[in-house]
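Hi everyone, sorry if this is the wrong subforum. Our group has a chain we'd like a structural model of before ordering constructs, and none of us has done structure prediction before. Sequence below.
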Amino acid sequence: MRVEYGGRVSNRKRGALPTAVALCMTEPQPLTATTIVVTRPAHQAGPLCRLIEAQGGRAITFPALEISATDSPQPLLQRLQQFDMAIFISANAVEYATAHISKIPPALTLAAVGKQTAAQLSQRYQHPILTPATQADSEALLALPALQQVTGKHILIIRGDGGRELLAETLAQRGAHVEYAEVYRRVRPSGDLAPLQGQQPIDLLTATSNASLQNLYDMATVPQRGWLLQLPLIVIGQRCVTLAAQLGFRHPATAAHDASDAGLLQAMLRWRHHHPIH
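Answer:
Right subforum, don't worry. Here is the predicted structure as tokens:
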């Protein structure tokens, strides 16, 4: 919930409750009295916060990852006609590659890791997009039939700096010629978790990538880590569940079924259903 002061007073009759308030009094929304930390980069946190608030929850933005464009030119994105397929690793890859892409060649196959990335591509380009139906990771993309027989194919992977090599290595093993276009960098925010601790009580913490989860852990001072590791956690993908366990989170992380904001919200509702307020 967001509280606004200084708003305009409505013209309803004195003593009458607005319909929405009356309904909330009898039927609490699923995330009522639930405080959730959204750790997406600041410019991407708004839609998820609004979904949480629409279900009665309180959203706190605390970016655990900062994203910025790389300084290097992107000549490969100007020569997409030389490739058979372009794979976008994330929504950030779509956003930061767009400035370098004049048009998508008709014969180019576009692929995306996850529905969120595919949705970003669809908004920008009227072009068919390959994407896994469920998981949002390289393993699910590599399982698609279109990526099995790639001998001799030229494939461009569009991503941030660094990251996993599984996708490129597997495609190369299958006979493809693979190149990278790294269009953004990930930066850990400065500071520690003191501002977040000041927002207690916190019911749920979200982490939408391994990098953001690792950053949260690294940002915590030694005294803050005990507090961080006892928080229930919503993540995306089994790799993030595994990392949470390795870092020492006391509760098994709840994984969203897909990387979209809607998928994260469903995971939050599922968690709240299994952990009702008494």
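For your construct planning: The longest strand covers residues 177-187. Residues 1-25 have pLDDT under 50 and may be disordered.
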